[in-house]
């Protein structure tokens, strides 16, 4: 018997919420409630934390520069209210200046206060289809600190210069008051709503990725839909052009931040190794399972950039690529060791989502100091040594939640298919178990191995599907 599992994929550099399963009709409400209980997802904040956040939300900036004349806008999912980033774009000769305003969470949250202690316990905002458990109380994350277009907001502006080749360099960083002109939504934004240069800037950044050999892919969002017969289907919603272009802005700012910290010999970086030879062999078998033609001489990174998320088989393969990777982790600066992110083919950092990631708050403090010729505060440098463990713990928790939600969706989708046969391809064999990829569905499972090698095709039968236990079991037929 075997248990099926499919992990989420999160697009790198995106400023949108985690690409979680979208379940607008709340078809899985009971199962989601159990998941929240199982993983102790907090439903609110302790009273002292909430009180401290409410008091912080009443603070009024006094030393921030006035940049309210700059025409900032935000671009996010329509329902989002925790807005980390706003942007304005300015021509500078042949270059573009990306004024990237980031919510000034460090100004609202003090080291060691009640809000800070709770944030260290959480690490990140946790997302589920029926809601989120915020890193900070909503009075900050969806109110005073969020870059909403209802008044002036304190921000940290990262001014990033993008040259014609798409290379990004930080020109400056400052604390400033900004005023967003509009809350734009991916689903409805028009080209005329966006600043001049938005499309060209994103295109430059994309061309630079291609030259570096970056393997970044943006998997589509998975959506659960009723099939009309009492069951469900998992469908893919490819990312909109507005989403991919917006992600490029965040990517450029984070690359520039990483470069700035690296030049200063300090910082906290995101690192990720490329899939090893065994993982790539498994991916080739997966591509075969989906009927994708991947020439033997073509590197994985090149093949990834050819994928089209509007085609179901290619969308499912994008998710398989993310599963095959060894995952990104945080690493503090270490002399003589280049912090490398294989998917981006460059040093990379997280600085642009402080409302949702604890680590970004400290990276922003470091970059502010470096950009203004000041030493990085000693407490910030010391924190870089502590953060990887905290962020890894939060990532592990979020990963477990994500896997549980997808398992729930899969079992709900296949509950009416018990007894049905499926074609599958062996993608890996380990300790007597063969990992399989279903040919017609983006589902990975394991069955007992039988002298298999990656690439072999077999048939399996769905023996049971239990949404209550989030468990699928397959039996092998060949």
TrEMBL record:
Annotated ranges, domain RNB: 64-373
Domain of life (superkingdom): Bacteria
Stated name of the protein: RNB domain-containing ribonuclease
Protein's organism: Novosphingobium album (ex Liu et al. 2023)
